[in-house]
Write a structure and sequence with these properties.
Layout: E1 4-5, E2 27-28, H1 31-45, E3 49-52, H2 61-73, E4 81-86, H3 88-91, H4 96-104, E5 107-115, H5 119-124, H6 131-143, E6 147-154, H7 161-178, E7 185-191, H8 199-206, H9 211-214, E8 218-219, H10 228-232, E9 239-240, H11 250-268, H12 271-275
Parallel strand pairs: 3-4, 4-5, 5-6, 6-7
Antiparallel strand pairs: 1-2, 8-9
Helix pairs in contact: 6-7
Bound molecules: iron/sulfur cluster (SF4).
Length: 276
């Protein structure tokens, strides 16, 4: 499902960043229209589980309020479950009562750009969050039984070994938090790739990087780090331009990525996943 188009934020790596889409206005569908589509898909195909793949579905407090009021009116949570994209700084301002209402309305998991455990790198990404806020929001979500799918980037321009270690610690800490609450936290980790039109692309090309080299994607085989099954499941994402953008050599970035992916894969075999 797509409930809205466009994003008002300007994360420097993101193709949906507002400055990368100057000709795009942000459009949000009327909640009644969204619910009409949920019901049509249910009536025609028996669908009861949905995923909102918007750039940012739970991204503006006022819109969430309108949508959830309509979802409650139509008793969506009694019939369907759904996952959605969200934003940490917005969810940080959502009250516990509002989180309860999201759960009652069927929300099962939120996909969040957590990106890094280093505040220095989060600032360079213009994420408008810090690691402590991400931890706070993730804790509140899993306490309410809402799962978190966290996206992380390794090898961002300027990332040092200490920054990378902070991200690894952040992820493991989030897993520990999830182990004490009903909701789970899943980490999805990626090697940084620059995309044309994004703010970081402009910075890199201005610093002398050749645009053709920034687009020379090649496959990366991460299976040698012993994460075969985990890596095959996400094969389509294992590509790279083969350039070291931060202070950490690419083999180290990739072996860290493989380790974290393997750990996540092992967690997926555990009891929480089985119970779900
Ligand atoms: S990463 Fe998310 S919040 Fe940031 S610009 Fe992209 S879609 Fe918007």
């Amino acid at each position: 499902m797509v409930g809205s188009r466009g994003c008002p934020y300007n994360c420097t790596f993101c193709g949906a960043a507002v400055s990368a889409n100057p000709d795009l206005t942000i459009r949000v569908r009327d909640p009644e229209n969204i619910i009409g589509e949920l019901d049509a898909l249910h009536a025609e195909h028996g669908v009861t589980a949905f995923r909102f793949v918007d750039d940012l579905f739970l991204g503006v407090g006022r819109v969430i309020e309108e949508q959830m009021a309509a979802f409650t009116r139509h008793r969506i949570g009694e019939r369907y479950v759904w996952d959605a994209t969200g934003r940490i700084n917005v969810l940080d301002r959502v009250t516990d009562a509002e989180l309860d209402r999201l759960v009652k309305n069927g929300l099962r998991e939120v996909a969040l750009g957590i990106e890094s455990g280093s505040d220095r790198i989060l600032k360079a990404m213009d994420k408008r969050i810090n690691a402590e806020m991400a931890e706070r929001v993730a804790r509140r979500l899993v306490r309410h039984g809402i799962g978190v799918k966290g996206y992380f980037i390794l090898g961002f321009p300027g990332e040092s070994r200490d920054d990378l270690k902070a991200t690894v610690r952040h992820i493991r800490n989030l897993w520990d938090i999830a182990d004490t609450y009903p909701g789970d936290i899943r980490a999805s980790v990626f090697e940084f790739r620059p995309y044309p039109g994004t703010p970081v692309w402009t910075t890199l090309t201005a610093a002398g990087h050749d645009p053709d080299a920034l687009l020379a994607y090649g496959d990366v085989d991460l299976t040698e780090d012993g994460a075969d099954e985990a890596m095959r499941q996400r094969d389509e994402f294992n590509f790279s331009v083969g350039i070291q953008f931060g202070g950490v050599p690419l083999p180290e970035i990739r072996s860290t990525l493989a380790t974290l992916t393997r750990e996540q894969h092992q967690r997926n075999q555990g009891t929480k996943e089985d119970a779900a």
